[in-house]
Specification:
Blueprint lengths: L1 H22 L41 E3 L9 E3 L53 H11 L1 H7 L1 H13 L5 E7 L15 E11 L4 H67 L5 H35 L26 H11 L1 H22 L5 E12 L9 E8 L9 H64 L6 H36 L6
Antiparallel strand pairs: 1-2, 3-4, 4-5, 5-6
Helix pairs in contact: 2-5, 4-5, 5-6, 5-8, 5-10, 7-9, 8-9, 9-10
């Protein structure tokens, strides 16, 4: 009995030593079953479905138990998940569930009430120290909180590469066999009682670890491309916010010019009324228009403030500092001509991050096929039994010790990963279809953007070359004849016609500026200022 106690105490010491050694292990994950991976951050990635990520499928097969002992006495087993760190989910190292498209910001609503007038001078580009569009983009990329949050998807995906690269830990096992109920006697012989210590080490013979690492690396490349597409979409929203500020600022200038003209008309009409030439109703009609223009100016300034706040939000500028934002830029076309439609399409197909992400996703899907083929074979277990004690104490004999060496090889009679292999192959075909769809969408975006640019450009050129000269001539003629030769109704009708033309001109300038920037978004590059 004392010998048994001594042996058990030695075994406890050995087990404790292995436990303490395991506490000091670095860069190794746990060897227990690992739960299903969740998407980085929360369970759902902000990038939407990861291209090429559907080929892993559920867990390859139920964990089988492989014998951990040499010879016929094999009472214990080893879960196969121990030999596949991070693979209990079936081989999908970065199973992103969800770059979803960044929602487009709505264009700012500029109030349409009140008369406008085209200022006599060229558009003021703003202060020389004002923020240019290039500076706004630079700040957006580094300071935008949404992009900051999405950026963390990249290091989390790289962490999955680390998980995929982890090797399996050896398994320590100790047991006691042929322990009698009571003790052995001549009438009830048996024995000897045997005490064993062994270590099983799984060997990856099919290259599952390398296949996992390859799949995880390609998944990380997909995430990086998705992040770049998120940047592209966020810059597109910045374009809208930036143009909204320029539009609101330009509207103020148009309104101030219209208000200045109405003030002159009101003063002239009041002078004629005081001299008894005009009626009070004439003064009232002009005053109403002046008051509408004054209200328009207040609303335009409020719209300008709101547009600045929207821009400040994207640039991570505090709301109380939004009023201090001054832009250096104009709505006027700078005269740059975009490349031909064929060149634009070629740029989009080679530069757009969403297209690139699906091409990388196709590589990932093909890598998952190789991974599933590697997962067909379970690890081979090499067993080393350094200590076996056979207790001869009941017989008055010395107890011998021995060692053993063995191997456990799963027989690949059945392919237990057929479903996942088929799923991975189908995922390759699915990703190819998705890539074709994304490429077609990119081509369509370029074509739509190019047609919108041509239409907006033609509209601005037509208004500047023919509409504005005629409208200005008619207004000047009405101003010359009023308040002497035409009545106030005819004068106000001339003002309304000119106001409509001025608003159309402003809207066409905004439309052209947005169309120019939309081409940049459609091709995925800044090719126009």
């Amino acid at each position: 009995m004392r010998t048994v106690c001594r042996v058990l105490s030695r075994l406890l010491v050995i087990v404790g030593a292995f436990g303490l050694a395991g506490a000091q292990v670095r860069a190794q994950g746990p060897t227990i079953d690992i739960p299903d991976f969740k998407s980085p951050g929360s369970g759902i990635s902000p990038f939407g479905k990861s291209p090429g990520s559907g080929g892993a499928g559920p867990a390859s097969a139920p964990d089988s138990l492989l014998g951990g002992r040499v010879g016929p006495t094999s009472p214990k087993g080893i879960p196969t998940s121990i030999s596949s760190p991070g693979m209990s989910f079936g081989g999908n190292v970065t199973a992103l569930q969800g770059v979803a498209r960044t929602p487009d910001l709505p264009a700012a609503t500029i109030p349409a009430a009140g008369p406008l007038s085209i200022p006599p001078t060229e558009e003021d580009p703003g202060p020389s120290e004002g923020m240019t569009l290039d500076q706004a983009i630079e700040r957006l990329v580094h300071e935008n909180l949404d992009l900051r949050s999405k950026f963390f998807e990249i290091p989390q995906a790289k962490a999955d590469i680390l998980t995929a690269s982890l090797r399996a830990n050896p398994v320590f096992y100790a047991d006691s066999q042929l322990v009698p109920y009571g003790q052995y006697t001549r009438q009830r012989p048996g024995g000897q009682t045997q005490y064993d210590v062994n270590i099983s080490y799984p060997i990856d013979v099919s290259g599952k670890r390398l296949a996992r690492m390859s799949s995880a690396l390609k998944a990380t490349q997909v995430v990086e491309a998705q992040y770049q597409d998120a940047v592209r979409q966020t810059i597109d929203n910045l374009y809208s916010a930036y143009v909204d500020v320029l539009q609101a600022r330009r509207t103020i200038t148009f309104t101030e010019a219209g208000l200045e003209g109405l003030n002159r008309s009101l003063k002239a009409t009041e002078d004629l009324y005081n001299r008894g030439i005009k009626k009070l109703t004439d003064v009232q009609r002009i005053r109403i228009q002046r008051n509408l223009a004054d209200q328009q100016l207040l609303e335009s300034r409020e719209a300008y403030r709101k547009a600045k706040v929207a821009l400040a939000t994207q640039l991570n500028i505090a709301p109380d500092q939004a009023d201090s934002i001054e832009l250096r830029g104009t709505l006027k076309d700078q005269g740059f001509t975009p490349p031909s439609i064929n060149q634009l399409v070629q740029i989009a197909l080679t530069s757009r991050p969403d297209v690139i992400s699906y091409r990388l996703g196709l590589n990932r899907a093909k890598s998952d096929v190789k991974l599933q083929y590697a997962n067909r074979f379970q690890d081979v277990y090499v067993l080393y039994q350094p200590y076996t004690l056979q207790d001869n104490t009941p017989f008055g004999l010395k107890s011998p010790t021995s060692w053993a060496l063995g191997v456990t090889v799963p027989m690949p009679i059945y392919n237990r990963n057929q479903g996942n292999i088929q799923r991975a192959k189908l995922n390759v075909t699915q990703t190819q279809v998705e890539l074709a769809s994304v490429e077609r969408q990119a081509i369509q975006d370029v074509q739509v953007a190019e047609r919108e640019y041509l239409a907006a450009k033609a509209s601005v050129d037509r208004i500047e070359s023919s509409v504005l000269p005629d409208a200005t001539a008619l207004l000047k003629e009405a101003q010359r004849l009023f308040p002497g030769e035409i009545d106030v109704l005819d004068y106000l009708a001339a003002l309304k016609d000119y106001n409509d033309n001025a608003r159309t001109y402003l809207d066409s300038q905004v439309r052209l500026r947005r169309a120019i920037l939309d081409i940049n978004t459609a091709v995925g590059q800044r090719i126009l200022p």
